[in-house]
Amino acid sequence: MKVLPTDPAARAAVRQGVSVSVATGLYGISFGALSVAAGVGLGPTMALSLLMFSGGSQFALIGVIGAAGTPVAAIATATLLGLRNTLYGAVVSPLLQVRGWRRLAAAQVTIDESTAVAVAQPDPAVSRIGFWVTGLGVYVLWNAFVLLGALAGDALGDPRAWGLDAAAAAAFLALVWPRLAPRRAQLVAGLAVAATAVLIPFVPPGIPVLAAAAVAIVVGLVAPASVPAEAPSDPAGDTPADEPETDREPVR
Description:
Strand content: under 5%
Largest sheet: none
Helix content: 55-70%
Distance between the termini: 58 Å
Number of strands: 0
């Protein structure tokens, strides 16, 4: 990598990645316990976690199974919620610029958390550090705590009583908050929150998330961010290009 580990921006990206990994990984206890309680065995629970590796989709799938839904409904709901990862791939692919097996590895760990940390960094080199630290960190810790939750089961009690359900959301908010300074970002966030709040009581899981993403896309298409144009200058001097130099006598 072009950025040394001693670089302040790189250290900040590593700290962000580790903190998000810990907060998200701890919530894996909840999935492991709920999955086993819903009748999914230890083996299938770990297979879901290791291979699907999308917390929202995993919770959606076991939620449908726990409610005695059909396998088709469970798969359809999980797939719908997982569609957002396709959008994340389009965002992080230009930042990572990976090929071969590294591209496959990057696809596996392209999730909410790794994307959020990557896009929060000041340049592509630091974004790559944040992406890999977060993606691999979440993968290891999430699966470790899913296994712990699946083995411990009801002995752990309700993870919500520990505040683990809010830990991941709090980490996301900390990442997003500095990026909400521009008015345009505040507008997008407000509209996305409103769309999500309106839809949650009436639509299946996954739809509100896609609606929030659609709001951001529509705002970007209707009101694209303007880039201030710089006045061209003469590389040979300080005289503007549209004002040719002339021999003038100084005014006394």
